[in-house]
Design a protein that fits this description.
Length: 114
């Protein structure tokens, strides 16, 4: 009996990977073995960096809050400690946005916690 290979599924799988490899440079976009490796590595980086993105944004918000709080003579840790003690339920994203785009509102929060 002849060997049976599922060409339909194989082609579909390869076509999916080749479609994902579009936009790559050189042989990474049109040679199956190279494209497969490139896509696999790219997906690994994408998974990893979705987590890293959250960490980076939190760090950015902390830096912005710290810079704004220091204008009013308070460090970040003291400011956040007083915020939590007062029971103000604003997250770091909202506080950083206020510090950047609405300094008067941020000053009101600083005055409330002092």
């Amino acid at each position: 009996m002849p060997r049976s290979v599922n060409v339909v599924a194989s082609r579909k799988r390869r076509r999916k990977v080749m479609k994902m490899a579009k936009g790559q440079f050189g042989r990474r976009k049109n040679v199956w073995t190279v494209a497969k490796n490139a896509v696999e590595k790219g997906l690994t980086y994408a998974y990893r960096d979705r987590k890293t993105k959250k960490i980076n944004f939190r760090q950015l918000w902390i830096v912005r809050i710290n810079a704004a709080a220091r204008l009013y003579g308070m460090s970040y840790s003291v400011f956040m400690g007083k915020i939590h003690a007062k029971g103000i339920e604003l997250n770091r994203k909202a506080l950083a946005d206020l510090a950047m785009n609405n300094p008067n509102a941020f000053k009101a929060i600083v005055d409330a916690v002092k």
